[in-house]
Amino acid sequence: MEYCSRIVLVDNDVEFLSPEALELVKLIDTEKSIEGAASTLKISKAKARKYIKAIEKYLREPAIVKSKKRGADSYDVHISPACRDLVGRYAKFLKKNEDAIKKNFELIF
After folding, report:
1. pTM for this one?
2. Which residues pair with 15 in a beta bridge?
3. Residue 76 pLDDT class (50, 70, 90 cuts)
4. CATH fold for domain 9-108
């Protein structure tokens, strides 16, 4: 027997941060590309942008993914400090909850 849990953050009944969105933001930060991150996760660019827009709306930021042109075909892409802080706290929250859920699962089942 196993369990499955999915913890999402919601604001005014609107989901704005999920494990999938967390992975997307992490990949954008490492791959330096929304398109590359979406491809790695095997989701559409439209779905990736939907995740990004939900976080932007919650943070009241016009853009959480910032890009600055470095050369003819090159951009420096990074995540805003507010987004980095939010996803860091969310990742920590998920880990603490996963530990507690696992412990309770083992106690009860």
Report:
1. 0.86
2. 10
3. confident
4. Arc Repressor Mutant, subunit A (1.10.10)
